[in-house]
Write a structure and sequence with these properties.
By secondary structure, the chain is of the alpha/beta class. Helices cover 51% and strands 13% of the residues. The chain contains 14 helices and eight strands. It has a four-stranded parallel β-sheet, with helices on both faces. Helix 10 links the parallel strand 5 and strand 6. Helix 4 runs parallel beside helix 5, helix 7 runs antiparallel to helix 8 and helix 7 packs parallel to helix 9. The radius of gyration is 20 Å and the shape is globular. It starts with a helix and ends with a helix.
Length: 380
């Protein structure tokens, strides 16, 4: 963990050095942008997934209305405050366009003259025309990359990277399987960090580190108190650096044993075929056949069925709905989920975050989370 943490933190400096050596740099956001293609092109990739700090969202207010979720706003705000060392030197800033929040933030970056490239992701994912549209967006993205680096991208190199990310996914699944134990040997805080680190660190290093971590964990003692309430966290994202809420839950004696998150986490339960057309392989795995994100429609009933499967599989005692401020589509889904889950008898608590973790904000936040954990303990 410490090695991955160190390498992840050092990644911006590494990219700056690579840029000086003549390599192209592509900063990107979202699972619908194939990171494997960027690496296969010989460019340096860097995922945007920072959160948990109230200052970057505030910095966007000179350019945009307040009503944008703080994760999307952090994307532009970090650049405005000089907190993103990669964005000013990036040759392309590629951002998936799947909802209005990221669309508005990319407009700020375009206004500031940055080389933004958009990958369109239609929300009506079950329709044939949407599926073909996304595939065409991938083909155009590949053409942009090839023009950027000045040479064709090898399909074999792309497939080799698919195989490596599949291996990372496999190792994360093996670690995740340990979380089904009565007392999991890893906390959610550490598990989500593993996801974040492997989204920043190179594939081979990630595979080596995860292999070692799994070997250490598979016979390790539990990391939680005996009979700790088993919690599922659901929402858009727990971003890199946004660890305050899970830390409070774990300190209060709760155990977050699984998650249902749409962004800022590796899609480790979703492998990409290494045979056949590379565009079709990526689109079918990541767009057609994956559990849909909240923004996709129709999706909420499908997502609730998946939620019930997770509750059963991980023996969940309660659900924490972790919602980012002004994220209206998740607010709408919560209305449905809260009604449906009440019929199952599983408790659900909604918590909204604007990344405001001042001393004044932490006290009531801690009280709410501790009370939730305590209520689950009493019900066990």
């Amino acid at each position: 963990m410490q090695k991955l943490d160190k390498l992840s933190n050092a990644r911006p400096l590494e990219i700056i050095q690579k840029k000086k050596e003549g390599k192209k740099v592509v900063e990107f956001f979202g699972d619908f942008v194939p990171e494997q293609w960027i690496t296969a092109a010989g460019a340096e990739s860097y995922l945007i997934c920072k959160g948990g700090d109230p200052q970057p969202p505030e910095a966007t207010l000179d350019y945009m209305l307040r009503f944008m979720n703080p994760l999307a706003a952090t994307m532009a705000g970090s650049y405005l405050l000089g907190l993103d060392a990669v964005m000013p030197i990036a040759d392309s800033i590629t951002i998936q366009q799947h909802d209005s929040h990221y669309g508005r933030m990319t407009e700020i970056l375009e206004y500031k003259g940055l080389p933004v490239y958009k990958v369109g992701v239609p929300a009506d994912y079950t329709v044939d025309i949407s599926r073909e549209y996304y595939r065409n967006e991938l083909r155009e993205f590949r053409a942009m990359l090839e023009k950027l680096v000045g040479h064709p991208i090898s399909d074999d190199d792309i497939r080799a990277n698919y195989a490596k990310t599949n291996k990372i996914n496999e190792l994360l699944r093996k670690i995740d399987e340990l979380r089904k134990q009565d007392n999991p040997p890893i906390t959610f805080s550490d598990f989500i960090k593993l996801n974040h680190y492997t989204l920043r660190v190179d594939y081979d290093t990630s595979i080596e580190a995860l292999t070692q971590i799994y070997e250490e964990l598979k016979n390790a003692p539990g990391a939680h108190a005996k009979d700790a309430p088993r919690i599922l966290i659901m929402g858009r994202a727990v971003a890199l650096g946004d660890y305050q809420v899970p830390t409070i839950i774990e300190s209060a004696g709760g155990s977050i044993v699984t998650e249902f998150l749409d962004e800022a986490i590796r899609p480790f339960k979703c492998d990409i075929p290494t045979e056949g057309d590379v565009v079709e392989a990526y689109a079918s795995a990541m767009y057609d056949n994956r559990v849909p994100q909240c923004i996709f429609q129709p999706a909420w009933e499908t997502r609730f069925e998946h939620l019930k499967e997770l509750i059963k599989e991980y023996r969940v005692d309660g659900v924490l709905w972790y919602q980012l401020a002004f994220d209206e589509i998740y607010d709408m889904e919560h209305t449905c989920v809260s009604k449906w889950i009440a019929e199952t008898g599983v408790p659900l608590m909604k918590l909204e975050s604007s990344y405001e973790y001042s001393r004044e904000a932490i006290a009531p936040l801690t009280t709410r989370l501790e009370s939730f954990v305590e209520s689950l303990k009493e019900a066990k």
